[in-house]
Amino acid sequence: MDRRQIKTRDAIFQALIALLSEKSFHRITVGEIIDLANVGRATFYAHFETKDFLLKELCEELFAHVFEAETGSAAAHSHIFDCEAPDSVFLHLLQHLRKNDNHILELLSGQSNELFLLYFKENLKELVKGQLSGMKMEKPAALPEDFWVNHISSVFVETVRWWIDHNLDESPEEINEYFLQVI
Amino acid sequence: MDRRQIKTRDAIFQALIALLSEKSFHRITVGEIIDLANVGRATFYAHFETKDFLLKELCEELFAHVFEAETGSAAAHSHIFDCEAPDSVFLHLLQHLRKNDNHILELLSGQSNELFLLYFKENLKELVKGQLSGMKMEKPAALPEDFWVNHISSVFVETVRWWIDHNLDESPEEINEYFLQVI
DNA sequence: CTGATACCGAACAAGATGTTCGGTAATAAA
DNA sequence: TTTATTACCGAACATCTTGTTCGGTATCAG
After folding, report:
1. Do B107 and B20 meet the contact criterion of CB atoms below 8 Å apart?
2. Are the beta carbons of B158 and A159 separated by less than 8 Å?
3. Assigned domain for A82 exists
4. What is the pTM of this model?
5. B29 touches strand C (CB under 7 A)
6. A96 found inside a domain
7. How far apart are CA B176 and CA A36, in angstroms?
8. In angstroms, what CA-CA distances link B21 with A28, A92, B15, B103?
9. A178 occurs within a structural domain
């Protein structure tokens, strides 16, 4: 692929990330993004159909990293974690978030960044759906499967939200403990 | 208060509600609202500083009804429900939602109406905080109180979201059962 | 080296926001 | 009923944002 494309695409992403740590998404204008990214207006729209698509693609790129690392640690590299229960996937997720790679946490916080949490939950649901069978936490018989998947994902996301709102005072281990208690 | 104010304020609310059942909030324009409400542009801004504040006030008005009826049934009119556990507050909430008064459910669904769920959760948290002591569901000792409040509220909201996404196929009793099971 | 193409930058129409102002009509209070 | 108040109208307005267009330039892959 043309290096120019990669360069501008990345510049736009970085600009959006920088702006997102200042203000909420719907207050950010395309003008600000292209200014910070040093990119022509036409160029922006050549890359992204609209501002919302930009956010969506950014989320996919970011979460792909996080979740790929996670499924990797539970599948391909499972020998490393042999001794651990599949539940620890969540602990690893929390630790990974805490490391704050790519400023994901900064994005997940902020005031009206509900879209992030929505995308986050979508990805998480896929992960949960895949790992459900091997998990310690058994589904109560009376519940529909997709309800159960949705529930686990929701609780995790909301737990992370609570964690963020508390400035990450607690350790990932504590949060994981909280999470497991309420499941 | 001047009857004119009440009239236009209500007209604007009704217009917004009508529009919200067609499209998501951020796609609705002030122009559409004042057209449907038959209200001058200046009048709109005399009532609401901005479109977001309009939404906020609408939510407060709507949810005030729902939750007031609920706290009423558990406090003032508690003699009616004497024989019931405080947990049934949630069942009543679900039934009340199902009746679809003021089209609340239509508003809670829709695509990007995350703000509604956010406001809904805010109000719910207050309710939960107040009723926590009398509830059957005891808090595990190791958990902070506000974490527990947040958790219960989150799960309820997400349960309602799931319910809505499933077109309310299930009865309020079933949903309440699901909810109690996962708590 | 050469053709393709990604970028620039400037301009553009279309549409939304929030404000202003003079005039009209409904309201509350006397 | 009369009077002073004030909510509303409607139309215009500056401003900002969006998304598109186009000719020229620089960079890329082959």
Report:
1. yes
2. no
3. yes
4. 0.84
5. yes
6. yes
7. 50
8. 27, 41, 10, 9
9. yes
